[in-house]
Amino acid sequence: MRIGIALGSNLDDRLALLRSARKRIQSFHEDSGPFLCSRIYETVPADCPPGSPLFLNAALEMSSSLPPLDFLAELQRIERDLGRPRNHGFHTPRTIDLDLLYCDNLAFRLPDLELPHPRIFERPFVLFPLLDICPDRILPGKNIPIRDQCQHIQTSGIAPQDLPSPLLHF
Q: Which of 36, 91, 104, 125 is paired with 118 by a 20 to 30 Å CA distance?
């Protein structure tokens, strides 16, 4: 199944943390499709405490046969290994944040996981990296592709400095 993952970091060596997470996540990739990496974007913190550092954000898409809850557990293990405490504050600065965004066309809500991620379309820092790797993807429960949602955001009056800006490739 094709799996989408969002990566973010706004503490310590953000780029090194994203690259380390990507390398660890790539170990779960299976050869049934390409391993896709977005560009890395620098973004203004959303819903974080005042004075929070800027984020680096990216997205990955890969193939894996791991069940979604098992994949989520692996992402959480990577987060802990990279210095994120298990019980961190809500929207606080973090060394690494890994979110499971979608698993093919699965749609469900469990106490620990909702797919697709319920706030993808509210988060330009997730959508713009996804635009790099899967612009035509239509998520379950949505009727427009990622590309169209990004165009809508760009024309909605959001200040340009609040839109993600690509910095470099992984």
A: 36
How many domains is the chain partitioned into structurally? 1
- Count of CB atoms within 10 A of residue 9's CB? 28
DSSP H helices in 27-92:
68-81
Could you tell me the CATH number of the domain that includes residue 29?
3.30.70.560
71 contacts 117 by C-beta, under 8 angstroms: no
State the pTM of this model: 0.93
Closest CA to 35 of 24, 46, 43, 45: 24
- Model confidence pLDDT, tens digit, residues 151-167: 998 888 777 777 888 88
Q: Which of 126, 25, 134, 32 is nearest to 81 (CA)?
A: 25
